[in-house]
Design a protein that fits this description.
By secondary structure, the protein is mainly α. Helices cover 72% and strands 0% of the residues. The chain has helices at 16-22, 33-41, 46-60, 67-95, 97-103, 116-141, 147-163, 173-196, 201-222, 226-231, 237-241, 243-267, 271-292, 296-325.
């Protein structure tokens, strides 16, 4: 892999080795194969999925701090994060290699650091491993219907149509970003809840609504790709509406649908959790004003690092409140017949 200006990022000397390991923009170049493979899997994107599994387990009301439950939850996190999110990110890099050649030419595929055949092999290994873990978790939970396997298959299919032609959902800013938001919030939540309890229509719909906040987060990831998206005709929201309007859309989606969750918590009598969620939304709005609305292209990483912890903590507060209220187990919220 060349260290020439055409392949190395402009800030290669400023913490770029860590960025390379996490799969973030501004990574340094490397010839170490395991680091290249890890960069394709983008470990930084695993965090919300791992957290989503934790939220689902909390919402089930049946998770207990005993060794079998802890090990099962860790296996579910590995399935959702390193394996299936790693599959998704590697697949996305494979189909985005032309865009990355414009936006991030130093990434493993456009720079030529790894042959396409090895990328394809990595995609298949991660997918099959993730599905195998899902099947094993169904056996552990005693599911008569392989709920975890079906969720893993569904999520993997959404990942494929998000990145690959002819559908390539990411070509449509609204549809693609919602698919991404649901994959990062609803799907791991469902997996965690189904592993320890039952997935009901009520919690499924609530998490799909919560995923609209995830749509706002997904928009933030589009700001760094505007040049390549515009060149290849992808209608991301920053391309369709301009960077300034898209930043306001992103902020509005994140805030409004979390406030909708506040209303739900009040409606089910979880007032303390509702107050906590409001207190977590306030600093998000503050960081939106400081970073997102001023220059989302320059400050996207700083914004996500400062604001997203409050988003994921809010998810956990909501999940714990749902589990405590018994909402996911009420007779009026029957289990989904999977």
């Amino acid at each position: 892999m060349s260290d020439s200006p055409s392949t190395a990022p402009p800030n290669a000397s400023e913490g770029s080795a860590a960025r390379q390991m996490l799969g973030m923009k501004g990574a340094s170049s490397t010839t170490t194969l395991w680091k290249i493979r890890l960069q394709l899997m983008k470990p930084v994107t695993w965090i919300p999925l791992i957290w989503g599994v934790l939220c689902g387990a909390a919402a089930s009301g049946h998770f207990h701090w005993r060794l079998p439950d802890v090990l099962a939850s860790l296996a579910c996190m590995v399935m959702s994060g390193p394996l299936l999110a790693g599959y998704t990110q590697t697949l996305n890099d494979y189909y985005d290699r032309e865009i990355d050649a414009i936006n991030e030419p130093y990434r493993p595929i456009p720079s030529g650091a790894i042959p396409l055949q090895q990328v394809k092999a990595q995609i298949w290994v991660l997918l099959i491993s993730g599905l195998a873990v899902a099947w094993g978790l169904d056996l552990w939970a005693g599911h008569t219907t392989p709920v975890l396997l079906l969720l893993a298959l569904g999520g993997s299919f959404v990942s494929y149509i998000y990145s690959a032609p002819p559908l390539k959902l990411k070509q449509n800013g609204w549809l693609g970003n919602y698919a991404l938001g649901a994959s990062y919030i609803a799907l791991p939540w469902w997996a965690g809840q189904a592993l320890f309890g039952q997935l009901t229509w009520t919690t499924a719909l609530l998490t799909l609504a919560y995923s609209l906040a995830g749509l706002g987060i997904a928009v933030v990831n589009d700001f760094k790709s505007v040049e390549g998206d515009r060149a290849l005709g992808l209608q991301s929201l920053p391309v369709a509406f301009g960077i300034e309007k898209a930043s306001w859309i992103s902020a509005a989606m994140i805030d409004l649908f979390q406030l909708a969750m506040v209303a739900v918590l009040v409606a089910i009598g979880q007032h303390f959790a509702a107050v906590l969620l409001v207190l977590l939304i306030v600093p998000q709005i503050t960081f939106q004003d400081i970073w997102l609305l001023r220059d989302p292209v320059a400050f996207d990483v700083k914004y996500q690092a400062s604001a997203q912890p409050f988003l994921v903590l809010g998810m956990l507060v909501t999940a714990l409140a749902i589990g405590h209220s018994g909402l996911s187990q009420l007779a009026v919220t029957p289990p989904i017949p999977l």
